[in-house]
Design goal:
Blueprint (H helix, E strand, L loop, with lengths): L3 H4 L4 H17 L8 H23 L3 H25 L5 H15 L10 H17 L1 H9 L3 H28 L4 H25 L6 H31 L1
């Protein structure tokens, strides 16, 4: 049997397969006769929910494109800031003053906009572009440092990101799916309840009717424990090398 601390480190596919195998073993051994049907049924149902959640995560069409757009706008806003910073060393005093004005404004949004979460970065860039387009002193300063094209690129990239992000939220709300990560702790609890019930019956078993079930579940757990142990050993070796 695996403990909750071991179950939590299994990868998603491993986790589902372990629980599915547990259900299969229990059903093969006549759960009604062993008085564990009421604990097997919830585990079977939650395996189906985990399957559904994992399939949905894989089928998200927006994730890769969204990540790419986020990288593009990270590069755009970082490039724009470095453009302002570079011009603070300009030999022309007028350009230098304009660059300082622009650098102060972009930094007023929290220093490194590119490191913000999706939502905060979207808002910061939107407000920054609005400042550059509506405040006369900033518009003039942007022309002096000749970085209007960078600002335009940042605006377009952020608009594309916000549109796709909005589409993803809309799509997810339609499906009303619960994430795999959210279901996993519940699944561990359901598995633990089944195992505790089986252990309780084994303690009272004087006719060895639970022996086969116990051996098969123990063998299954040992196989997955080997996976966990091997993964830990690899991680420890990497840490030692570092």
């Amino acid at each position: 049997m695996l403990t909750s601390s071991n179950l939590i480190v299994l990868h998603k596919e491993e986790f589902i397969e372990f629980l599915r195998n547990t259900v299969d073993i229990c059903e093969k051994n006549d759960p009604v006769a062993l008085h564990i049907q009421t604990k097997v049924d919830p585990l079977r149902k939650i395996v189906a929910r985990l399957d559904d959640a994992l399939i949905y995560e894989r089928e998200k069409e927006f994730t890769k494109e969204l990540e790419e757009l986020d990288r593009n706008r990270d590069e755009a806003v970082t490039g724009l800031r470095y453009g302002f910073l570079m011009n603070t060393y300009h030999k022309n005093p007028t350009v230098k003053t304009a660059a300082h004005l622009l650098l102060d404004r972009i930094d007023s949004y929290g220093g490194s906009i590119a490191r913000m979460n999706y939502e905060s970065e979207s808002a910061a860039i939107h407000n920054l572009i609005s400042d550059l387009e509506t405040e006369h002193t900033l518009k003039t300063a942007l022309q002096k440092v000749e970085l209007q094209h960078w600002a335009d690129h940042l605006k377009v990239t952020n608009q594309k990101f916000r549109e796709l992000y909005s589409n993803r939220i809309e799509e997810e709300s339609k499906h009303n799916k619960t994430s795999f990560t959210t279901i996993k702790p519940e699944a561990i609890t359901v598995y633990t309840q089944l195992i505790n019930r089986i252990k309780a019956y084994i303690e009272l078993d004087e006719n060895n009717i639970y022996d086969v079930l116990q051996r098969e579940l123990t063998t299954l757990a040992e196989r997955y424990q080997q996976i966990i142990t091997h993964r830990k050993e690899i991680l420890q070796k990497k840490q030692i090398k570092q």
